[in-house]
Amino acid sequence: MEGCSNKVSRDSHPMDSIINVGKNTIGGNKITIIASPCSVESEDQIVNIAESVKLSGATFLRGGAFKPRTSPYSFQGLGEPALELLKIAREKTGLPIVTELMSLAYLARFIDEMDIIQIGARNMQNYPLLKELGRTNKPILLKRGISATIEELLMSAEYIISEGNEKVILCERGIRTFEKYTRNTLDLSAVPILKRLSHLPVIVDPSHASGLWWLVEPLSKAAIAAGADGVIMEVHNNPTKAKCDGEQSITPNKFDKLMKSLRAIANIENKEL
Ligand code: PEP
Ligand code: MN
Questions:
Q1: Whole-angstrom Cα distance, residue 157 to residue 135?
Q2: Which first-to-last residue range defines the signal peptide (predicted)?
């Protein structure tokens, strides 16, 4: 990847890319904090969490409407009604929305109504989907596949950029290894490697990387210290009752404390948070 002419490559674009999302930017000097529950469960839940994380300094709101669950019998997300609830939360807080797209059937709606389209680990190599996204002008948050190499992640980003859409944000969310204690193994070295190979912003997901709420704090601190452009994490007001991923969700209180530490680390790195 070094010394190659792919559009994702730093050789083809030496400066860091800064992605514009409405009046917000991702990358460059800025640390982006994307927070909220794994899935949207109700209007009260999403609005309540959105208001708390906004007060603590989150810059984007995440929330799943369509959930890629291992079992078809697990909660699959509220689907389209959740998009309406996300819009209500955006209206009340001003936080732009990040949510996962799994099917092209909803692409037009996501383009019109959402701010960033998340492509989850399971779809990182869904090339027809990536090509379609490349023909849009929408910011794409591309998560690393569960068993994908760094080069495969970059080539997936290339699928989007080669079609014309340069607004890609890369996300390291842990990979599958022999280690069973954590849900995945956070590949922290992917952060400086991706930053060296590519000009695209890189964010880290400590929630899916670890599967454990108490690892979210140390892993997100390490991510910012390692040069990540931000973190995406799961926050829930009642983690034990969460419909999805409660065991890896931190409470709004813990999120508030964590933001203070992340701000201090961002400061040392000469970045804005
Ligand atoms: C998610 O962000 O809720 C998610 C399902 O993540 P991943 O695709 O990384 O597993
Ligand atoms: Mn989740």
A1: 13
A2: none
Write down the domain spans for the chain: 6-262
C-alpha torsion sign, points 150, 27, 204, 223: positive
Which DSSP symbol is given to 170? E
C-alpha span between 78 and 80 (Å, rounded): 7
Give 6-262's CATH code, choosing from 3.75.10.10, 3.20.20.70, 3.40.630.30, 3.40.50.720. 3.20.20.70
Instruction: Concatenate the DSSP letters of all residues of 1-35 into one string.
Output: -TT---TTBTTT--SPP-EEETTEEEBTTBPEEEE
Q: Specify the residue with its C-alpha closest to ligand 1, atom 4.
A: 120
Instruction: Report the atom number in ligand 1 closest to the C-alpha of 232.
Output: 2
The pLDDT tens digits along the chain (273 residues) read: 776 789 999 999 999 999 999 999 999 999 999 999 999 999 999 999 999 999 999 999 999 999 999 999 999 999 999 999 999 999 999 999 999 999 999 999 999 999 999 999 999 999 999 999 999 999 999 999 999 999 999 999 999 999 999 999 999 999 999 999 999 999 999 999 999 999 999 999 999 999 999 999 999 999 999 999 999 999 999 999 999 999 999 999 999 999 999 999 999 999 999
Tokens of 139: 């910011």
